[in-house]
Fold:
Amino acid sequence: KDFIYKEQYSGTPIFAINFADKVETDYIQNDSVTKLTFQSVFNDLTDNMEASLYSHARMYTQWSTKFKRCVECGEEIQFIHGGSKWVCTRSQCPLADPLQHRNNAAYPRTDPVVITAIVNRDWSKCCLARSKRSIGKGIIMYSTVAGFMEPGETIESSCQREVWEETGIDVKYKDITIVKSQPWPYPQNLMIGCIATVDFNGQNEIIDLNHDPELLDAQWFDTRDLSNSLATYESGFLLPLKLDNAKYSLDPEITVQLPGKNAIAYDLVTYVVKKFEETV
Structure:
């Protein structure tokens, strides 16, 4: 039920319960309890409000599970402000030193990640990559390039470095555009979506996976092929790509996937396709 606080604040309280330390035998065994997977949760979310509530709940419950004692003195901690912050219960904790501009409180951390769609100048080509990490049984997924920002980096320099490290493609700092961001608290990331534009000159666009061998493959895909896939896609955790596998030297028996509408990679590819269609 809605409540009002101090006459000007109102809303509906929402609580998250963490079952991470429970086993299945602890759960109520009836038809109203459904065991969810990471994918099924995303498939069941109906709008951005639900997705936001779920992501907040997941982040805070994971954070509260991860920290039990003060990282400075080892004393027990207490979660306050609805679980959005913890304080050390020891009054003489070294963290509580106002002269050093320190206090005995801590907040959830956020790790920024740059997600980059690499395109040529006229938007007709988009480089997508396949990770060595297993996505799931029988799933072959190509996506945009991604990597964590390092301390002291700008978003643009991080994007430039990640593109070169993973694909060998040489993109100039000035040719990186920040498009949008997306919270991704799995466990604690902020996805920063970028477009890296490459001038094809016989050298810049050459793919080399040997600088930091994280990828199994990376290829320049025709944007028109991606557009055909987007045109028939409705929803889901993954987007099936309607590709001519022979054209890209892929196993003719496999179905290639792209991250679905829940991921910023999908938004970036959609952005690329829209820009391409505006030019033709």
